[in-house]
Amino acid sequence: MLIQENLTLQQKLEILSDAAKYDVACTSSGADRRGKKGTTGSAVSCGICHSFAADGRCISLLKILLTNECIYDCRYCVNRISNDTVRTSFTPEEICTLTMEFYRRNYIEGLFLSSGILHTPNYTMEQIYQSLFLLREKYRFWGYIHVKAIPGADPELIARVGHLADRMSINLELPTGDGLKKLAPAKTRERILTPMRQIQKGIRQDQYMVEERKREKKIYLGSGASVSGGRSHTAAQSDASSVKISSKAGLAETKISAAGTASPSGIRKYDSGNTGTASLPSARGALHYEQKSRFVPAGQSTQMIIGATPETDHQILQVTEALYQKFDLKRVFFSAYTAVNDDSELPALGTKPPLLREHRLYQADWLLRFYGFEASELLTEERPYFHQELDPKCDWAIRHLENFPVEINRADYTQILRVPGIGVKSARRIVQARRSAKLDFPDLKKFGVVLKRAAYFITCNGKMMNPTKIEEEYLTHMLTADSRNQTRQLADQSEFRQLSLFDDFALTPQPSAADNMKSLTGQM
Amino acid sequence: MSSNNTTYTYQCEDSTDGILTAVYDAWASRRGHSRIKLQIPREADTMELFSEYIPVQTDAEKAEKVRCSILKKISTEAWEMVFRASLSNQDEKADLIYRFLIGGFYYGAPVTKMMAEPVVMRMTELARSVSNEAHEWKQFIRFDEQAGRILFARFRPKNNVILSVSAHFADRLSGENFLILDTGRSIAAVHPAGQNWYLTSLSEADANAAFSSQPDEYRDLWKTFFDSIAIRERTNPKLQQNMMPLRYREYAVEFGERFR
To answer: What are phi and psi of A406, to 5 degrees?
Structure first.
């Protein structure tokens, strides 16, 4: 490992953002927080992207690693210990200034902090805590923070970081435990799922507390007795909460003092190695951010690598569904494996990332989350892969022609939502607009319905747009004829091209026929 | 001159108050909705032969009356639609708002949902395009740090979205001095740290003269980050341009600016 000292901030940023770029999640959504006097920042629930990189992915957060040093040797990872790359780390101060200065200029929506494992999981998590604490309390940053929880770190540490961050995520890395065993021998499924469960429980508990507080704050309008009852209730509640906070702060303080006297108890009970770490600051900064903020308010997400191991789409989708249902995740991200390491267990260097597959998985993911589909409806063990040329919704519709055509003016919302070419927004508009008028095809077009696909599956006032055979083969042919071209383009996008001095990515377009005509007639 | 075929064209200022005043005057004239047209006069316009042109004097009081009736007799949602549409860059907006309000005062609150009605649909489109553009500028505006910790941003929106964009930054960066300049309309929002912000008129040339561009290390750091965060194997300029059209890049640091 080459640990480089004396790098400039620019060099560090280059190395540590380059090493973080394979992390997919860059969303800044889910938290809603207005600005506050004396602080910098706010959070918008729909999220804000600030730029788009050359690969077309959004840049919302300052996505960096705390360090790219790592004790693990996961075969798929650029930062594995056996890779001969330059290693460096940010100091917490550097992370804070970068975040603040970028944020002021509206370059970013907040911070995405991940890290390699330096020394031990606990040490790393502690460094992350230090950075976030500094950012929240000293720099008074009120914007969005997404942070990675390090599997294997002390639950107490994860819990405290969760109150400073908006979203936490733990990478599932690979869709199945077998893949993990093969490619990341130091990690186990259990080690990843334990903190995920902890965060889920923390979020649930937090939501419960908030609801409870709301219920108790309700004022009862009615007879005098119940009003006073309500008041005493709130008083008791605020008492209880102040006791709770002070006891919590007290707890933290005793722990800090314990650490100060180098006693083995308290928060330093785990072994952080002979690294001479600083102890965690008291949870009470000037803003009391940690006490006042909710636990992981923007929820939890995860990501897995697609195409490094031989799982089928069916398996991946099943895992995804299970994560949504059993772990209450906000998002599951898929990352098409980019061949970064030369390894016998992995696709060879130069293999194109499976972008089409990733795309299909995201489409299916949307169907699970917003369209009321179940994983078992989309793929089965007999048909474990997505159709190359049809999106999962079209594919489903063609195999379930008994449900079609759907009458736009009468069918219920859930039925309309399942029609290919109709999305959540257009379905809502349809349901709203048909209360006051009978809808016809031109109306649908205005609502944003893609008639190119929808026309085969719907009727307006009992009529279809064009005469259509409702028959599997015919529809497949009609629908793929159009998407064939597009799909091919998407598959070709990953085509690796050698840079050439003279013919550089079509920057100088070939003259068109019209141009040639113009030059002949002297217009040019 | 007022024969049965005469139409009346109310010419109003291109502002929310201007349009609402015209709505008030036109309505109060009792000349019949079908004979009335609202118009924002442009130099290139040709005059119609059988139309009487009536210039409208913008009157904040009349505009306020119309606003109150919309809120009271239609709905808050309808008012929001009217307000947003009035900031649009489409010249048809004045007449469209008038037509929309005819329906609004007749049907009441349900009017905003009557998408099959072309006027309502078009209003929704205008309002949506204004709020979408405002959201996109909240993403893509870039501040430049000037001497004295002043943040300076320029942008060139199609619709007049400086109000909503500035309100967003006033909330977010309450402790900063910032100035946002709409270079197309020469309007600027000025926000002194910790105080209320206000609009003023300012031309791009004047602003450039006042703010000398100075080297800023974070600008270079941002460019470094922008380049290193992209995955080379997935390069996709078409997708990039779909997500961030060229018109948003004029003043974006990472795409190289025209002015430094």
So the answer is: -100, 130
Per the CB < 8 A criterion, the answer to whether A300 and A270 are in contact is no
- The Cα of A376 is separated from the nearest Cα of chain B by a number of Å equal to 31
Distance CA A397, CA A401 (A): 6
Q: What is the DSSP letter of A135?
A: I
Q: How far is B223 from chain A (nearest CA, A)?
A: 10
pTM as predicted: 0.81
pLDDT for the residue numbered A520: 52
Task: State pLDDT tens for residues B97-148.
Answer: 999 999 999 999 999 988 888 999 999 999 999 999 999 999 999 998 888 8
How far is the first Cα of chain B from the last one, in angstroms, to the nearest whole number? 58
Tokens of B124: 């929704």
Q: Which residues of A touch B234 (CB under 8 A)?
A: 55-57, 336, 338, 353, 355, 493-494
Quick one: fold of A2-268+280-336? TIM Barrel (3.20.20)
Q: What is the dihedral of CA A202, A205, A210, A212, to 10 degrees?
A: -170
Nearest residue, CB atoms, A59 vs list B221, B229, B242:
B229
Tell me the shortest Cα–Cα distance from A149 to chain B, in angstroms. 21
The C-alpha atoms of residue A510 and residue A516 are separated, in whole angstroms, by 10
**Dist CA A330 CA A109 (whole Å):** 19
Q: Which residue of A has its CA nearest to B110?
A: A436
By the CB < 8 Å criterion, does B256 face chain A?
no
